[in-house]
Amino acid sequence: MAIKKTSKEEILKNSIHLFKVNGYYNTSMANIADACGLIKGSIYHHFKSKDEIGIESLKYIHSYFINNIYSISYKDELTAKDKLKLFVKKVDEYFLNSEGGCLLGNLALETSLQNEVFAKEIRSYFLNWQNSLSNILENKYNKEEAILLSKKYVALTQGAIMMMNLYDKKEDYLRVGEEIISLFD
């Protein structure tokens, strides 16, 4: 195999896809190298270990959500309902166009009991999701209700992602977003 130059981001994107589709423990460094068109040793120029790739993959997705989805809840120029609609739309766009489901949800099930570093990042991701959604809902509900509703929505979304992948049907997944938007009707 010819040696090819690649970026850290390209390695992360390929790793994320493999982790979501095959699972963390079923993805080897050789699999990652193959997906990137590299020899296995080339990966070590960017990352010390598969665990480092794993945590950086979690951080990469978390950062994407912070910048592109969670930030919506703090846009003062939008009404609360418009924030909620846009928030749901962006979450839907991500998961409807993402083979393998939710990396953080998948790895929460697969690794969080064995890897506290992963678990900490995953908890932070879900807490940020809940907090940003709760921030929107506090425009109509008291703080306690908003927190409970945000936890419910995140859990329903994660369950719906799993079921969407299991049955290859997006209708039930989309209903979760419709339900959360209806909280402002």
The global form is elongated
| CATH-defined architecture | Orthogonal Bundle
In the CATH hierarchy, the third-tier topology is known as Tetracycline Repressor, domain 2
How large, in whole angstroms, is the Cα Rg?
A: 18 Å
The profile of the biggest β sheet is: none
> Helical residue percent?
over 70%
What's the SSE pattern?
HHHHHHHHH
Q: Mean of residue pLDDT?
A: 94
Uncertain stretches: none
Beta-strand portion reads: under 5%
Task: Please work out how many helical segments DSSP would assign.
Answer: 9
Counted up, domains total 1
Report the count of strand segments: 0
> At the fourth CATH level, what is the homologous superfamily?
Tetracycline Repressor, domain 2
Distance from first to last alpha carbon: 58 Å
Category from helices, strands and their pairing: mainly alpha
CATH class: Mainly Alpha
What can you see in these coordinates?
This protein is 70% helix and 0% strand. The protein is an all-alpha fold and 185 residues long. The model has no long low-confidence stretch (mean pLDDT 94). The chain has a single domain (49-184), classed as Orthogonal Bundle (Tetracycline Repressor, domain 2), CATH 1.10.357. The chain is built from 9 helices and no strands.
